[in-house]
Amino acid sequence: MIFVPLNKLTESEIKFLPGNVDYTLNPPPFIGRTQSGAIDVLNEYPIVPEMDPPNVSGYRYYYDEALAAALKDIEGHLIEGLNKLEGNYRNRVKNLKVYVKDGGDGLGDMKEMRNRGTLYPSKVVRMAFTILSVTAVLDDNQEIKIFVEEKPNSEMCCRPLVVALADEQDKRSLAIMCKPLMFEREALQSTTMTIGSLSFTFSIYGTMYDEKMLRMGEGMLSSGSKYFCTLCTKLRTAPIDDVMDITRTHENCIYNFEAYERNAQHLTRENLLKESTGIASKPFLSSDPMIDATHADIHWGEKVFEMYAREIAQVYDPNKELTQEDKALVKDGAVRLKKFCREELGLKKELMMVGNFAREMLKPKTVQTLCDMLLPPQRHNAVKQYIALLSQMRTIYRATNPEIGSVDTYRELSSTFKTLLTNEFKYAFPLSNYQHKVLDHVPDLIIQFGSVGKFSTEPVEAGNKLCRRFRKCNAYKSPTMEMLHILKYHWLYTMKSLQMLVRDKANFHCGFCRELGHTARTCAKKTNSSLSN
Fold first, then answer.
1. Residue 335 belongs to what H/E stretch?
2. What is the pTM of this model?
3. Helix (H) or strand (E) segment spanning residue 145
4. Residue 207, helix vs strand vs coil
5. 495: closest CA among 128, 159, 153, 268?
């Protein structure tokens, strides 16, 4: 059903696409629109003859039309949630508040592209959003949840907004795609959308960005600079116990850039960067302060791998610069560790990625086996404690709904882990950006947002695999039409109504007579055939 040509989609399928839902906005923030549905990403970009056109080609949906289509898709769940409210509460409902997370990612090199001679880069940038929950707002501003997305980090509920051929490292191309969405995003949070008899307000969190895109969009220096944190102004060389509050916001980045650009005191670049705390270009990506739990896992997987390699090589001295002999020992330790993963854990070569590796390495049985086979006895307790503390912290920052009291527990675990690193793993310093953020900022983020794992970029990363699949199955000579088809196919793939329809057909599809509505066990034709034989 999903892979038929777009001109052969049924009316029931077309109505699920953005642009086919009637709604009103009060006050109306978007005036003068002449198009609806999927539009060219350069539709609102002014043509300047003196400048080269941006190297971008693709399609996007208007943010308000996409949200209206997504809410229409879950309308049945919302009405069911409202009907479950007690009569006293039901009559006091003022409107419905929708909590959304959005973000984007680049797919890197797309080898599946079959057309030749194009000037566009063979890279794709995607933007998407996920509806996290919907609450009923009462007349006294009390909120009662009527819909909660069961799997907020699944690609099945991450709906596409933009699919374009572009290079995510090209700031101009990225800004052209993001600025219209950022304008619509801000406008929607100060307006009310009415669909039928339901009124909606929106609270949108820009959290589904990896660190590279976030730094570029907020005007920060690269992750290799001494300003290595996207949440605070702590320097890479600062002591591990120096904990700073979360101060980097979109408004703060804009203020610091204006000070950097103005340079009223005529400072040198080094002093100017110190005054602007590492902000060196104009921010255009409106984001919220958050830690990406998915990339934090990947990064910790790399650090755990490095730790095991050094422990196997028995190279511990942090004060001595690694010699060629030490580097050879560490490299040999890494080879022995990979061999252990293949032979003892059963990880295939193509699965030896840091994400899979981290999940396996944090299992107590794996740690015990590895210690017994590869590590010296005097290091067993330190390594086991390292993994145990990291596993407990990971359980909290990956949780979509952390338990009450998890903040105090996390602070104790973080303090113990820092002490362990200082005493037993001195070679781990200086800490990387993700290590610092996981150890210092998770408690504050849980207090502010209620969770860290719920705002992960995992649905965007998983959606990238779907995008590659759709592009491989629907490669055309025209890259522009290719992006249009991928955008629409991906949207239909995420529709809950179609997912339920496919699930019902799969559950009630007779393998004997090939008809829908029953199974082979209850098939009358099969029963009659067996009786006649």
1. helix 324-343
2. 0.85
3. strand 143-148
4. strand
5. 159
Contact 21, 68 (CB under 8 A): yes
Same domain, 170 and 277: no
Under 8 Å CB-to-CB from 222, ≥6 apart: which residues?
Answer: 215
Residue in the block written with tokens 């006050």: 27
DSSP 303-315: HHHHHHHHHHHT-
Burial of 4 (0-12, 13-18, 19+ CB in 10 A): exposed
Cis peptide before 18 (omega within 30 of 0): no
The residue among 180, 210, 240 that closes a domain is 210
Name the packing angle between helices 63-73 and 171-188 (round to 10°): 60
328-337 long-range CB contacts below 8 Å, 24 or more apart? 333/308, 333/309, 334/305, 334/309, 336/312, 336/374, 337/305, 337/308, 337/309, 337/312, 337/374
The per-residue pLDDT for range 285-323, each reduced to its tens digit, is 888 889 988 888 888 888 888 888 888 998 887 777 788
Let me know: does 123 contact 167? Beta carbons within 8 Å: yes
Could you count the other beta carbons within 10 Å of the beta carbon of residue 416?
Answer: 15
Q: Looking at the structure, do residues 185 and 240 belong to the same domain, yes or no? A: no
| Cis preceding linkage at 27, omega within 30 | yes
Q: Higher-confidence residue: 383 or 514?
A: 383
- Tell me if 276 sits within 8 A of 256, measured CB to CB: yes
- Could you report the per-residue pLDDT of 1-36, keeping only the tens digit for each? 445 566 666 777 778 889 888 999 988 888 777 788
Task: Verify that 79 and 220 share a domain, yes or no.
Answer: no
Report the C-alpha gap between 273 and 101 in whole angstroms: 31
Q: Are residues 273 and 368 in the same domain?
A: no
